[in-house]
Amino acid sequence: MTSRERIIRALNLEEVDKIPWIELGFHGKIVSEIIGEEVILNSGFHFLGEPEEYEKYIKQMIKLTKKIGLDALHLKCWAPTWTFIETSSSRDSIAFGTAGKIKNEKEFKNLEPEFIKNCEVSRSRILQCAEVFDRVMKNEEIARGYDIGGVFTESWESMGFENFCISMEENPELVKKVISLFGNFYNGIIEEVISKFKVDFVYSADDLAFKTSPFISLEKLREFIFPYFKETKKIIGDIPWILHCDGNILPIIEDLIEIGIKGFHPMEPQAINIFEVKKKYGDRICVIGNLDVDLIERGDKEAARKEIKKLVENLGYKGYIFSSGNSITEGAKLENILAIAEILNKKG
């Protein structure tokens, strides 16, 4: 069974020969340690640069998959959210959002033309890199996906969370205008990608919850966010859809399943009991997760091995994909990554 077959079968709740492995992101520092080459350092999310630079990167990621048995790679198709967000840089020159710029209708109108212009730049870059991704992956047996960002997350980041929440009540039309910019971009780009390239799965990253409960009520999600999710499902059809969402999504999981989301990542260990979710929903969804990131970074090898085996032995070979509890970060211990590879690559 190839990696591609393994991922698709797992997402379709069919039995696999060994448990597949997927990650939202893999920090360049860790990739460098594994493949023995210098890799561009990044936040852990799959890099998207100039097409020539991206080709070098994706070839290095393919080497990673072959070294450790990772079963899937995906290309980031994110909107130019930075148009609406004040940013600062970390020591790795990575921009992090600090505050949303949209406080009212006037600021939205001032920034909207710039966002639309930047969307076209982003669209062009994404399609150029998608061509590279498709060509380089053509003869590989690795599952290939496309990662659209988060309509909810990027909308509230653009406005600031408190302002976003207040505006849902006091100025809902402004909120809907902001959301529509992201929803239309993501649904437009994934429709174009599907029409031109081979797509094994769609991955969307949209944090909807605290560790205890969703950020906003189910009623508000149904009014403001889920209409765009439903449109995404219409566009992607039978292509499996994975949602990355930290926190406790159990109060809204029935709606998400009904919309058509098939894979749920990462089942954050501090928020959700993945074993209970598998027991209750395992005939309807594929659970993806959830080795604690803190254990990967700080735990010793034996502690990591124990937890990996617990996940494998209790979640099984049907409707389960292994992953960290978020992504492989800069602080991950190499010995723990190699322990994952060793255990997962044992078939049967």
Automatic annotation (TrEMBL):
Molecular function terms from GO: uroporphyrinogen decarboxylase activity
InterPro entries for the chain: Methanogen_methyltrans, UROD/MetE-like_sf, Uroporphyrinogen_deCOase
Biological-process GO terms, alphabetical: porphyrin-containing compound biosynthetic process
Stretches assigned to the Uroporphyrinogen decarboxylase (URO-D) domain: 157-344
Protein name: Uroporphyrinogen decarboxylase (URO-D) domain-containing protein
Species whose genome carries this gene: Candidatus Desantisbacteria bacterium CG1_02_38_46
